[in-house]
């Protein structure tokens, strides 16, 4: 019936539209089973039309929205979380300085009755739109809001967290300060967290709700804490008051001290009602004294931050610490006395009353000696686990004094000028040694990682954290001693006496230049992790590190000094006796030659061999180091990235340990890879060949082991792939091919076997051709259950030109109907017109077209044409080959410019290259002059002093007499050359035939232009007209 036909048409149209608008919320991604919509960084200028009652979360972070109207979110009535941050940041915070304006209608959010979280940070808002009553969290940071009233927060009784920071400070200036009325928080009976940081506040705001648990007033300009400021905040547990009266001699950003550089004045009763306070931050307030009575009410205080003040005397003599019985974390960093370094550390005896203390940090106090009397108050603390004395210029310390810290997990003495050994101390007294420089790690909680993290920070940003391996760190062990970034030049066994309980030792970034003989660490019988990176260790003795029977992790990276010395051999035989070693890093050592042919370690599971020179070890047909990894029979992870490899020999792949599970060969220069050798690695699970220059995947079946699940080929130059390559990859679950050169993905790209088990596919960032041939791929994305990464914003068209820069899903499927019929019609019509018109044009205008074509060719051709020569040269180059500078200029400048570059190449005759062997010198010279159209003399400061130049000159003059041809061109390289009578006469007769090499590099293109003109033209054309006529 007619009705049935209409319904069928509507269904087909709906299917087409749905197919053309994939994914469901295009151009955003749907997440969490269609309950979340991710629109981050899509350059959207308006809210996408999202309609779904299931959606409860929308993220529009960092777009370019300009308008949010009242009905923008009508399609998501159950929305609970909305992030609209950083769509129009304040002008001073925009790196590109582009002006913008985001307008939000007053009732844009009112109808979102289920909305609980709203982020509006970084939008240059000056007023707050009406808010839904069920809101729990509101973020208004980084706007231009300087005044708030009751109407802004009225009725929002469920609000628990309000972020109002950074609306008025030096990077987002408002030239005033944030103000709000006293009745602003009357309805905020549930507010627990309030952030007012960076707002130029000059006093504690009035009317703060008593339900507050956390209050952030950091980086304002509050000079005084009055008795009544916190009276009603009886539930407060976290108070941040840092950097209000800033100490400017150690500020890392623009500094704003209080009047006369005075300290933050804290009234004795300022904290009288804060009996529930657990964390207090008073950092950077120029404090010089702290009376005990201030802290008497704070009996429950557990964390106190007092860094960047002037509390040197308080640290030595203060009694306030006895008022903090529950204190767990105490930070006293950078309380040094200006222009003063203490002889030794002296700590207040009151510290021994902090029986609950777990963490104390005393960095930047500046003292030279550390002895047992200095830390005596800490030795009796039963719960102390983390002690840090970084950046103090400590010269002398007896490490055995830390033996009293029975429960300690970290003793940090890094970033000082320790030398340890007696011989080194004596040498330091004679000369000053510059220590390595590094910015302080300003942390309030203990995070003690291995130094290899510093090396990886800039190089591994592209790694896949889920597939890569984690570097073992000291935080995983029970007790750590950190001596990194010191002046240690030598270590002796006695340095570590009575330290048998140390499990992790960090000696990285020192100056240790020593051959280890197996005795240096003999007292560290429990050591499991040793970091000696960034030193100068000489790996020579076979017993190195053998005194460490339980060592599991060894960092030897960045010890390249010894490996860079030419002719010096290196031995890794010490690995044979390390039966507990599981992780070894040899990165950043430029290891290339004169090392052990094989690495032998029966227990090693992870080997990091980055930034070495395997390209040298495996180059050509050398087989010396082919089996370097063969004897690592338990090896599971091997990383040989950044080794300048252009190829991995097939014998190397065959010799790798069969136990290998993860193989990383990233950031090399691989053009080909011997895929057929992968069958020799039956345990392989992950293969990462990203960041190479692979061009193709072979059109043959490749076999991997039954455990192979991950193949990463991103950032290569692969142009296509076919299903034959993937035919046997039945276990592959993750395939990454993003950022290659793939233009088309069709039904021949993937095998059915691959698609049955594949869970994740990433082909984003490829220059896709958005033609009708992409129909299969779009249909595949529509129907597949495979998780395709970046499906909405990573599939960008590169061709045709009309689609370049658009999303793949912007193709209208209806435009592909009958495309081949239309194409056939266009081709046949064009052929018919051509076959009809061309004979007519030839008959009527054939000669005119031929003549016009030649004229056009002559106009379009660049440069100067020379007459063709069958058996001759365009020019013979005469120069004194005994002068190195002239010879170098001829071969690297003149020959390169005239023979290889430019629109016209000239054929040059050179003595050492083109003269016939067996002929006499004079015969070759005559042939060179007479068979060349020009003879170019390259003259230095000595002019024609060379015998070859004089002979060539006489033969050229003879040719002038015989053939009436002036073939001489003179090139003067030295401005100071003495002018002979011939040169002076030549200048009068034909000045243009003498050209001089310019001193100014910008004039060199004109020099080469003039020389090309002389080679292409007859010299008579340039003769002086008066002389020629006479």
From TrEMBL:
Gene Ontology molecular-function annotations: pattern recognition receptor activity
Keyword Membrane: yes
Keywords, ordered alphabetically: Endosome, Glycoprotein, Immunity, Inflammatory response, Innate immunity, Leucine-rich repeat, Membrane, Receptor, Repeat, Signal, Transmembrane, Transmembrane helix
Matching Gene3D superfamilies: Ribonuclease Inhibitor (3.80.10.10), Toll/interleukin-1 receptor homology (TIR) domain (3.40.50.10140)
Major location (coarse): membrane
Statement: the UniProt record of this protein carries the keyword Transmembrane: yes
GO CC aspect terms: endosome; plasma membrane
Localization in the cell: Endomembrane system; Endosome
Domain TIR: 871-1015
Segments crossing the lipid bilayer: 819-841
GO biological process per UniProt: canonical NF-kappaB signal transduction; defense response to virus; inflammatory response; innate immune response; positive regulation of interleukin-6 production; positive regulation of intracellular signal transduction; toll-like receptor signaling pathway
Membrane topology: Single-pass type I membrane protein
One Pfam family linked to the record: LRR_8
Family designation: Belongs to the Toll-like receptor family.
Name this protein carries in UniProt: Toll-like receptor 9A
Organism listed in the record: Lissotriton vulgaris (Smooth newt)
Source lineage: Eukaryota, Metazoa, Chordata, Craniata, Vertebrata
């Amino acid at each position: 019936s007619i009705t049935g036909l209409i319904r069928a048409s509507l269904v087909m149209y709906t299917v087409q539209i749905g197919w053309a608008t994939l994914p469901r919320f295009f151009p955003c991604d749907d997440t969490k089973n269609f309950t979340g919509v991710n629109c981050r960084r899509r350059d959207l200028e308006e809210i996408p039309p999202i309609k779904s009652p299931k959606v409860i979360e929308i993220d529009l972070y960092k777009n370019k929205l300009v308008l949010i109207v009242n009905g923008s979110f009508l399609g998501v009535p159950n929305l609970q979380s909305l992030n609209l941050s950083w769509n129009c940041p304040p002008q001073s915070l925009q790196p590109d300085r582009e002006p913008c304006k985001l307008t939000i209608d007053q009732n844009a959010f009112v109808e979102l009755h289920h909305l609980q979280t709203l982020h509006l940070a970084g939008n240059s808002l000056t007023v707050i739109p009406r808010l839904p009553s069920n809101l729990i969290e509101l973020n208004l940071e980084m706007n231009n809001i300087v005044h708030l009233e009751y109407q802004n927060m009225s009725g929002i009784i469920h609000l628990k967290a309000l972020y109002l920071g950074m609306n008025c400070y030096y990077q987002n200036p408002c030239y005033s300060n944030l103000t709000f009325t006293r009745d602003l928080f009357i309805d905020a009976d549930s507010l627990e967290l309030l952030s007012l940081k960076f707002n130029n506040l000059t006093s504690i705001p009035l009317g703060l709700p008593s339900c507050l648990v956390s209050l952030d007033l950091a980086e304002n300009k509050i000079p005084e804490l009055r008795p009544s400021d916190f009276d009603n905040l009886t539930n407060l547990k976290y108070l941040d008051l840092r950097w209000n009266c800033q100490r400017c001699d150690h500020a890392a950003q623009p500094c704003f001290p209080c009047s006369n550089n005075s300290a933050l004045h804290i009234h004795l009763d300022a904290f009288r009602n804060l009996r529930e306070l657990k964390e207090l931050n008073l950092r950077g307030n120029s404090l010089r004294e702290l009376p005990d009575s201030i802290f008497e009410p704070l009996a429950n205080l557990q964390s106190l931050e007092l860094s960047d003040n002037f509390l040197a005397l308080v640290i030595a003599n203060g009694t306030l610490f006895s008022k903090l019985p529950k204190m767990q974390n105490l930070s006293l960093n950078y309380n040094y006395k200006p222009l003063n370094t203490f002889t030794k550390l002296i700590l207040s005896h009151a510290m021994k009353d902090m029986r609950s203390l777990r963490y104390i940090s005393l960095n930047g106090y500046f003292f030279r000696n550390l002895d047992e009397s200095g830390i005596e108050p800490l030795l009796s603390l039963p719960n102390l686990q983390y002690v840090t004395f970084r950046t103090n210029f400590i010269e002398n310390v007896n490490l055995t004094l830390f033996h009293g810290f029975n429960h300690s997990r970290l003793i940090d003495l890094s970033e000082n000028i320790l030398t340890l050994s007696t011989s080194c101390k004596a040498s330091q007294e004679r000369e000053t040694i510059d220590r390595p420089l590094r910015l302080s790690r300003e942390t309030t909680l203990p995070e003690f990682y291995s130094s290899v993290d510093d090396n990886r920070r800039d190089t591994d940003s592209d790694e896949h954290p889920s597939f890569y391996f984690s570097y073992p760190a000291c935080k995983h062990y029970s007790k750590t001693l950190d001596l990194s970034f010191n002046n240690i030049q030598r270590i002796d066994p006695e340095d570590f006496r009575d330290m048998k309980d140390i499990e992790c030792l960090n000696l990285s970034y020192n100056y240790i230049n020593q051959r280890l003989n197996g005795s240096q660490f003999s007292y560290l019988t429990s050591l499991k992790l040793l970091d000696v990176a960034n030193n100068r260790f000489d790996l020579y003795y076979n017993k190195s590190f053998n005194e460490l029977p339980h060592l599991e992790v060894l960092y030897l990276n960045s010890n390249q000094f010894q490996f860079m010395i030419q002719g010096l051999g290196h031995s890794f035989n010490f690995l044979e006796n390390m039966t507990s070693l599981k992780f070894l890093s040899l990165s950043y050592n430029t290891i290339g030659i004169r090392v052990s042919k094989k690495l032998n370690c029966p227990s090693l599971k992870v080997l990091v061999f980055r930034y070495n020179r395997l390209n040298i070890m495996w180059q050509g047909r050398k087989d010396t180091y082919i089996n370097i990894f063969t004897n690592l029979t338990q090896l599971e992870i091997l990383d040989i990235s950044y080794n300048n490899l252009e190829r991995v020999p097939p014998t190397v792949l065959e010799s790798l340990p069969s136990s290998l599970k993860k193989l990383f060969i990233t950031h090399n220069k691989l053009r080909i890879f011997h895929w057929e050798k992968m069958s020799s690695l039956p345990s392989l699970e992950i293969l990462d060949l990203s960041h190479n220059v692979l061009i193709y995947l072979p059109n043959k079946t490749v076999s991997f082991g039954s455990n192979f699940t991950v193949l990463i080929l991103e950032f290569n130059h692969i142009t296509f792939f076919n299903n034959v390559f993937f035919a046997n990859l039945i276990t592959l679950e993750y395939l990454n091919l993003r950022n290659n050169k793939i233009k088309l993905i069709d039904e021949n790209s993937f095998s059915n076997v691959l698609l049955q088990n594949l869970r994740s596919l990433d082909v984003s960032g490829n220059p896709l051709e958005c033609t009708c041939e992409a129909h299969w791929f779009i249909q595949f994305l529509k129907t597949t259950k495979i998780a395709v990464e970046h499906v909405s914003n990573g599939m960008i068209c590169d061709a045709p030109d009309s689609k370049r820069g658009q999303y793949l899903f912007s193709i209208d499927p209806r435009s592909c109907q009958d495309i081949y019929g239309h194409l056939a019609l266009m081709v046949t019509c064009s052929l018919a017109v051509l076959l009809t018109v061309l004979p007519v044009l030839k008959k009527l205008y054939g000669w005119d077209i031929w003549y016009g074509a030649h004229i056009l060719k002559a106009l379009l051709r660049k440069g100067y044409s020379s007459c063709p020569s069958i058996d001759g040269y365009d020019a013979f180059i005469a120069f004194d080959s005994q002068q190195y500078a002239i010879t170098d200029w001829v071969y690297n400048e003149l020959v390169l410019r005239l023979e290889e570059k430019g629109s016209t190449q000239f054929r040059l005759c050179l003595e050492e290259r083109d003269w016939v062997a067996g002929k006499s010198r004079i015969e070759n010279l005559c042939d060179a002059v007479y068979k060349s159209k020009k003879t170019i003399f390259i003259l230095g400061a000595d002019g024609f002093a060379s015998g070859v130049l004089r002979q060539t000159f006489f033969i050229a003059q003879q040719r002038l007499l015989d053939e009436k041809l002036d073939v001489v061109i003179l090139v003067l390289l030295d401005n100071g050359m003495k002018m002979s009578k011939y040169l002076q006469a030549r200048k009068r007769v034909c000045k243009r035939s003498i050209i001089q090499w310019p001193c100014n590099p910008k004039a060199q293109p004109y020099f080469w232009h003039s020389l090309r003109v002389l080679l292409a033209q007859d010299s008579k054309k340039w003769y002086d007209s008066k002389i020629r006529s006479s």
